[in-house]
């Protein structure tokens, strides 16, 4: 086994030791099983796609830093990296989440991109490991939009490493099967309630809550949606998303009759939205 794969498995085990007990203690849906439908597929995503994504990130970083060395005055990355690590991390979170918001909203608004993003929305039972299920095209475009500016501006490797740890754990927490009341903080930071509504298969929640860490971005752009203390009744999409790993990767490239019918339905329904293919 390659060292990268071994590291990925170790990290996944550590996350399981954190989130499985948390989901048991603070369960939102007590009837949901740990070994829920599609769990095996999501484990493959976490290990295989996780290793692939690491390679892509290294290549992105190398390309961005090479371009920065040519285009950006040296004093800028030196000044950025000389800041306190905690301040750099805060700046990275803000900068990266603006990129996530923009790319995420595009994946919902553009039908060709939605086909890739629908793989993630096809999950019908949310838990911590569901955070890993994303098509490689979805992951690469989102990471490019959110992290290329970070690499380009010369943030320190230590700050970027801390950001990745925070981002990864936060992403799993957002998808976790937990119920926690964050009070007024729900307007500032992304919470499980905030992100569960993003996954809701309910018309009033379509195309809402795009940010990955800062809910205030959605509040500023008018896409914030948390109806009181309520949680969604169901998750998923009405598209026939394949259940297997290989089928999900090929799904966006298949132009079958069912997909065309879903698109037609979305167009003719006045209250519908292409991103949900209703």
The portion of residues forming beta strands comes to under 5%
Q: Tell me about the biggest sheet? A: none
Average pLDDT metric: 91
Radius of gyration: 19 Å
| Residues in helix, % | 55-70%
Count of domain modules: 1
Total helices: the number is: 11
Indicate the low-confidence ranges by residue numbers.
257-278
Estimated structural class: mainly alpha
Taking the alpha carbons of the first and last residues, their distance comes to 43 Å
Kindly report the oligomeric state of this protein. single chain
Description:
The protein is mainly alpha-helical. It has one domain. 61% of the residues lie in helices and 0% in strands. The chain is globular, with a radius of gyration of 19 Å.
What are the SSEs and their pairings?
Elements lengths: L2 H23 L13 H33 L3 H8 L2 H25 L1 H11 L14 H18 L3 H19 L16 H7 L16 H7 L23 H6 L6 H12 L10
Main traits of this protein?
single chain; 278 residues; mainly alpha; 11 helices; disordered C terminus
What's the quick description here?
This protein is an all-alpha fold and 278 residues long.
